[in-house]
Write a structure and sequence with these properties.
This protein is α+β, with helices and mostly antiparallel strands and 551 residues long. It has eleven helices and 29 strands. The strands form seven sheets. Strands 5-4-8-2-1-11-14-13 form an eight-stranded mixed sheet. The chain has a five-stranded mixed sheet with strand order 16-17-18-20-19, with helices on one face. Helix 4 packs across helix 6, helix 6 packs antiparallel against helix 7 and helix 7 packs across helix 8. The radius of gyration is 25 Å and the shape is globular.
């Protein structure tokens, strides 16, 4: 056992040393234009978009416009919006007249004829066209996916988290400012349908095709805005009797998938909603309903129109990511991507560097779903199994102001972090549930920061957890629990950590006995566990993702 634990310690040191040797990323002005909240962005507060676009699958092209409505937060005469440089800005119109604009990288700068004064409401419209970037490995890269269904009909979908929505439509491409509502109008060739976010208001026959108008009644972030164009068939899932009343369930699938969709969605959606509402509070978008939409990629958390591409099977494309056997009993994409309706869509990080707020909580929601279906022990086993995917290669929090997310450990390592906080500080399951529901209520439909989330936990638990969050989010290495056994007196323990004031109670026991929760800081202190010896020490590594070193 001592050799095994020492090897863990040595491997962690090696990982930390390797990280120090990696060259730091070099960021460009284009990165800053994309990620930084400059005055040219913060000067206007978005209230409404009307995206009106025509899709030409044969040419892989788009053309249309987006109306920006806003309230001025300060006096200004110039602002920035974003559109990828490979797309043409045909004109920018304000009060019926064209506005001058310039372009740099993927940013567009507009100058108004007279200052817009603080508090005033105004609008401008961007007309654009071109062939957006085609995604090759969606959803991991961004752009539009062009393919065909089993009958050879066009099938087109958007997926742009990370790279940004401006890869296919003009917007203020950042996460800090969301519109309050949005109209999405998509014109497609005759015989095809578009499925976007929100509720379908109307369909209109137009020259060369059909226009679909979808209205989003709730705030929405840019990357969630979706188009799905194909030979879709609508299936009603009825209504779910949720915490905020009846919730409409709608499924849009290709004809060849109708039978499979009916069975798979009925088996997964109602228990998912029951579980996640019980843990996190009411589904955040009752006004817009809940939809699953067949997608030509694995899936994405498009708000109220979740993209689904898991091939109508349980697990993650048929396999259990946790390796425990619990992950192949339910459809990973339905549970995970729907979990983002709470974390990612209702609660959205202001900067993508804080994307752990989306992914850590949503990955943890998988374990909470397992717990609700199969019991708490099963949920704990699932979380432990998630560790097989952790790399400890880089900090989870990315670089602010340049549109850079952190390590993919934000998924599974972040899930383990939340489970450790529950284990160490909230043994009462009802209180833990109330804490998670309160988090969603506190920041409902808001864009938020790491500091706000950590501050909420500190305030609600009456603890100083900032060093714990920092250790797991801002450093790649794990804290090491060092235990020494003096010749006289009780065993002593301390944490070896990057955070100088790191402190975390830990569960230890004499082998075969009952775990005791003992306080441990970065200074040695006695482990008050009777009869504890080197040969019978057991640390709860099932629930604590830490390294251990015995002396």
């Amino acid at each position: 056992m001592r050799v095994f634990l020492s090897l863990i310690f040595a491997s962690l040191l090696t990982s930390a040393q390797a990280q120090l040797l990696q060259p730091k990323a070099a960021y460009t002005r284009a990165d800053s234009l994309r990620g930084y909240q400059s005055a040219l962005r913060t000067c206007y507060d978005l209230t409404y978009y009307h995206l009106d676009v025509r899709v030409d699958p044969a040419r892989k092209a788009l053309s249309g416009s987006n109306e920006f409505r806003f309230t001025a937060t300060q006096d200004f005469s110039r602002l920035q919006f974003d559109l990828f440089a490979n797309l043409q800005v045909d004109k920018v119109e304000y009060q019926g007249k064209p506005l001058p604009f310039t372009r740099e990288a993927n940013a567009v700068f507009v100058t108004f004829p007279a200052p817009i004064t603080t508090g005033s409401r105004a609008a401008f419209t961007v007309f654009y066209s071109g062939q957006p970037t085609e995604a090759k490995q969606a959803p991991w890269d961004g752009g539009l996916v062009y393919t065909q269904d089993a009958q050879g009909k066009p099938w087109v979908a958007s997926a742009c988290q990370g790279v940004g929505a401006s890869i296919w439509w003009p917007c203020k491409d950042q996460q800090a400012d969301e519109v309050d509502s949005m109209l999405i109008s998509v014109t497609v060739p005759k015989g095809l349908k578009d499925v976007s976010n929100g509720r379908l208001r109307r369909t209109t026959a137009v020259k060369g095709g059909t226009r679909f108008d979808w209205f989003v009644s709730n705030p929405i972030n840019n990357y969630d805005v979706a188009l799905n164009v194909g030979n879709y068939q609508h299936l009603s899932g009825g209504t779910y009797a949720g915490e905020s009343g009846p919730l409409s369930l709608d499924y849009w699938v290709l004809p060849e998938n109708v039978a499979k969709a009916k069975a798979q969605f009925a088996a997964n959606v109602p228990p998912m909603l029951k579980s996640l509402e019980s843990w996190f509070g009411p589904y955040p978008f009752y006004k817009d309903g809940y939809k699953l939409v067949d997608a030509p990629h694995l899936g994405m958390e498009h708000q109220s129109a979740v993209a689904y591409g898991n091939k109508y099977q349980n697990g993650y494309l048929g396999r259990d990511r946790s390796g425990t056997g619990w992950g192949d009993k339910w459809d990973f994409i339905i549970i995970h991507e729907s979990g983002h309706e709470w974390f990612g869509n209702s609660l959205t990080s202001q900067d993508i560097a804080d994307m752990w707020i989306h992914e850590s909580f949503t990955t943890y929601s998988e374990a909470l779903f397992v717990e609700s279906q199969f019991g708490k022990e099963a949920g704990q086993q699932y979380i432990h199994g998630q560790r097989r995917n952790i790399r400890n290669d880089a900090p989870i929090i990315g670089t602010y102001g340049v549109n850079r997310e952190g390590s993919s450990d934000m998924y599974d390592k972040g899930s383990s972090l939340l489970n450790m906080i529950r284990t160490a500080y909230v043994p009462d399951d009802a209180r833990w549930r109330a804490l998670l529901r309160g988090l969603n209520k506190e920041f409902f439909h808001q864009t938020i920061t790491t500091e706000q989330v950590v501050g909420y936990f500190n305030q609600q638990l009456g603890q100083h957890l900032t060093p714990v969050f920092n250790q797991y989010l801002r450093h790649s290495g794990l804290p090491i629990l060092e235990v020494r056994f003096p010749k006289e007196g009780p065993a002593q323990a301390r944490w070896i950590a990057n955070e100088a004031d790191f402190a975390l109670p830990v569960r230890v026991r004499v082998r075969g006995g009952t775990y005791q929760l003992v306080p441990v800081s970065t200074s040695f202190q006695p482990l008050a566990v009777p009869n504890l010896k080197r040969e019978n020490l057991e640390v709860d590594t099932e629930n604590y993702y830490v390294g251990t070193l015995l002396e």
